[in-house]
Amino acid sequence: MDTSIRDLKANLSQYIRQVEAGETITVRIHSRPVAKIIPIKQKPSLKELANTPGILWNGGKPSGLRKGEVMPKGVSLADWVSEDRR
Predict the structure, then answer these.
(1) I need a labelling partner for 61 at 20 to 30 A (CA). Which of 11, 21, 41, 46 fits?
(2) Which residues pair with 25 in a beta bridge?
(3) What is the mean pLDDT of residues 25-30?
(4) Is 26:2 a contact under the CB 8 Å cutoff?
(5) Cα distance between residue 38 and residue 15, in whole Å
(6) Diameter of the chain by CA atoms?
(7) Taking the CB of residue 37, how many other CB atoms lie within 10 A of it?
């Protein structure tokens, strides 16, 4: 949607409500675009993420991830971590 700066000033609340609803407003001065008012992106919902092309999810836990290491018995955590860092 396009509007002049004069109309924007006169009806700012109305335009802000439209932007809040997801619309982008282009502000023009003498028919020349000078600014855009765009909605702030909110965090997408789980449903929106699931509908993103290329993402498949059946609602369960992810599969195919390797299992983490198991800490050996009788070894302190500090020793185990320092050994892993070498």
Answers:
(1) 41
(2) 37
(3) 95
(4) yes
(5) 11
(6) 79
(7) 17
